[in-house]
Amino acid sequence: MLFSSTTFLFVFLSLILVCYYAVPRMFKNAVLLVFSLVFYAWGEPVYVFLMLASIAVAYITGLLCGRDREKSKVPLISVISAIVWNIGLLLFFKYTNFFIDNLNSIFDMKITPLGLTLPIGISFYSFQTLSYVIDVYRGKVKPQRNFLNLATYVTLFPQLIAGPIVRYQTIEEQLSGRKETLDKFARGVRRFAIGLGKKVILANNIGALFEEISNTPQSELSVASSWLGIIAFTFQIYFDFSGYSDMAIGLGRMFGFEFLENFNYPYISDSITDFWRRWHISLSTWFRDYVYIPLGGNRKGKLRQCVNIMVVWFLTGFWHGASWNFMIWGVYFGIILLCEKLFLLKALGKLPAAIRHIYALLFIVIGWGIFAFDDTSKLIQNFKNMFGLGGLPFWGGKYDLYWIAGSWKLLVILVIASVPLFMHLGKKLTVKLPAVYGCVIEPVTTAALLIVSTAYLAGSSFNPFLYFRF
Amino acid sequence: MENKSSKIANIITSAVFIVFVMGFALALIIKGDREFSEMENRTLAQKPEVSWKNIKEGTFSTDLESYISDQLFAKDELVTLKTDLDFMLGKSYQNGVYLIEDSGLRYVQKYEENRTQIAENVGCLNDFAQSLSVPADLILVPNVSAFTLDKLPAGAVCDDQKQSIDYVGSILSERISFYPMTEALSESYGNWYYRTDHHWTAFGARRAMERYLLSSGQIQSTDEMPGIEYVRAGEDFYGTLYSKAPVSQAVSDTFYYGDNVGVQEIEWVNEGKISDSILDKSFLDKKDKYASFFGGNFAQIRIKTGHEGGRALVLKDSYANSAVQQLFTRYSEIVMVDLRYYHMQEKDVSELVSDYGIDRVIMLYNMDFLNEDRNFVWLS
User: Fold this and answer.
1) Per the CB 3.0–4.6 Å rule, which of A69, A303, B184, B206 could disulfide with B211?
2) DSSP B287-310
3) Do B6 and A45 touch (CB under 8 A)?
4) Tens digit of pLDDT for each residue in A293-303?
């Protein structure tokens, strides 16, 4: 089920809110678990059992990892089994067909691809259960003896299908000892409304422009419209994904949970290093803590650090999907980050802020140019077009004027929404006019966001979720 | 720790959300389901059956989703809000229509010329005409986009129908007399076309038929046109193009129809229905007012006009539904054939021509139809 659907809002959410707040404390997690399983099983029921198996594996290996590492080999064997299970699942469900296709085309073999659909959210929940078992092994958290609590953690519907990757250690105590408060609920509502608006009003709208441009025949494009298309995608993916994270964080709060932030205005970054501290934070920190640091991080010399960085970024790219462009995208950022680490950041530091922002944005947008097309020939064609090698005029494609005229207002809104302007404004108003802001402006904005989002849901069949395939 | 005002603020915000979620949920249960949406012109999804089989096969979830979205409380108003906002944001093209400023808002259907299809369709008409021994006329009606090209938004893509009509003229067989209506409808086109519907008005239809009858020599002066008394339907008319992009700035149309068009007998041949009126007045109170002419489009309609004259066969699209009444005083019998529905019938159209003793074949089409429709092949 998607958050941005009328079924979710008016059936699922209304029911779970009633049930959750009607039952006594001891049943609250059970309510969450049951609803989360329905949420997951919606439309594709079989893979629920796969997820339950994953939870069972995490539960057992977690318990076994809790034993004394000095005295027994059981914890080591358990953590390795958990890693093998989770990575095995990912490889099997997500990457088998990719390997088969490539073997077929490189060695001219004729292996039949598996008829598998990707289990929704598998990339997220396998990383989560993995972080749990590893953290138990490392002694950072205690093993969860209550199966219900562990199952609630893994299946928790707000973050189940598109993240953020909530780590067990973040909500360990909340699982049994959280308190739902009015303040949390209200903050959750605000956050959810903002997320819904980002996704439904902004991302879908600008996404339609990207879709339109990328489906326009080559001869009717121009250099300018190729850039417009990629800029549209740049906004779409940010508002889509961060909107989803906002909704997850907001929903979590409504049920008493506090998740960590996943985005922090990534497009105001002044370097790529900065960007990756602000974009999909739960993923980059996951790779840092569970891949980069175990590989030795920066503790084993410059050369080894460079290798580690490249490994991590190759994997980060590959995590996004079983397709070459995601790997290229990961390696692309690996190289830039490496350069920044070695010399570029120092050099950039001497330049004016504006230049640093332009530099960062340019490379971010180019990155999305790689990310946006999993069809390699389309990807190459698009880059040729963007850099004037596609034989296109700079300006004057068939629809150029129309696209600009029809989207410049939206683009202005998107730019404003990408910078922390409203956040600062809100903070100022909270101090200066607390009553008016809290009792009038915020509720009215929230209501408006909810109603307008519903209007867009009602009026548009265009509602694809970008982060679904991961 | 919370001070009082922030507590009140939290209560208000939470209440807003609860009312929003629960309100829509309760409205779904309370308000009762609609069978049909006039706005969308389609039947709506109904409550899905809860059964283990449906749930297992996953049809329950998709059915429930379409039920919820179809039966959403205040859906038409919400859709209008969405298109309003889109329009405000500068989307003057939505769902295949342009929203233009033309002393008030006007909907214009985007036209993209498809020469291959036009050539194919005209080829079918040509071949058909070759086989005829009676005169054949083609009345070709431009859509309103032909006259509003200069009013379209910057960068809009919309081909010029005048060129398409010229093209039709250039490839049309000499067996068919050509009556393009570009010139007749160009001046004060605002009277001849609806603002919110893709059809022409009763007056546009009359003007074009008058021009046709005069130029083909079937009448000598406009005095010979039938005396029709036009009355307006009670409510405002919001047509098909409005439904594609309902904005609140839309200017409603007034729907006029000829009230005193009597016929001796009219027969919907395949349906076996017989009546003495070409109007189905039940549609005048509904949204789709244009369907009050004959109740919509049908494969074959036979009209005994009760007047003296020959027999005409009219090959038509929906534009003809409001126009054909202008021919009643000139013919004793008119047979209307709509090739979209006249498929695999007992007799093909040529056989109808000879069986009914037809004296003249009149083809009446709008340019958009000739550009897109794929049913002309049924002529052969």
Assistant:
1) B184
2) S-GGGGBTTS--SEEEEE-SSSSE
3) no
4) 999 988 998 99
